Amino acid sequence: MFQNSIAIKNKHKKFIQECTENEFVWGLRSEAGYASSSSTEFDDEDGEPIGIICFWSDEKMANVCAKKHWNEYSPSKIGLAEFLENWCIGMHNKYTLAGTNFDWNLYGTEIEPLELLIEITKVLQEKNKELVFRNFDGIRDLENQVQNILNGGEEEE
Q1: CA-CA distances (angstroms) from residue 46 to 39, 49, 95?
Q2: Which of 11-31 are b and which e, b meaning 16 or more Cβ less than 10 Å from the residue's Cβ?
Q3: Which secondary-structure segment (H or E) carries 139?
């Protein structure tokens, strides 16, 4: 189990590094929507598993999962700015988790979408990368507003 835990953490780090380098993520899409699963770690207030929408840092990994679990789905590229601004914030509002780089056994990181957003924006800033958003004035503005949400509405110093 310990080795699986390390492998999952390494796949998550790979997700962060690759999506910040390439500036996109991959989802699996069908006519019904995007591939989703249920959390094995987190439950809602009724004791039911929280939903997860799965994302990958490369098309090949997404395709492996499509063939094994979601054979009616195909890889769909999502720009990183859209992913952060629309997907992560939207999933947070719908109380849905993000799953990163799940493998063919559906092992991967389950993470609150705003925490994922913060992880990604920190690495983007380390790489001196900037993205263009529709509703935010750059990465720092997005990150500051999300930190405000995570801090329960308290203003950041």
Answers
A1: 14, 9, 13
A2: bbebbbebbbeeebbbbbbee
A3: helix 139-150
Tokens of 93: 């509002």
CA 70, 89, 41 angle in degrees (round to 5)?
A: 55
In one letter, which amino acid is 43?
Answer: D
Q: Which pair of structure tokens corresponds to residue 15? A: 């997700």
Q: What is the pLDDT of residues 45-94, one digit of tens each?
A: 999 999 999 999 999 999 999 988 899 999 999 999 999 999 999 999 99
Longest distance between any two alpha carbons in the chain, whole Å: 48
What token pair was written down for 121?
Answer: 């924006």
Give the strand pairing for 97-100 and 49-55. Answer: parallel
Domain covering 2-112: architecture:
3-Layer(aba) Sandwich (3.40)
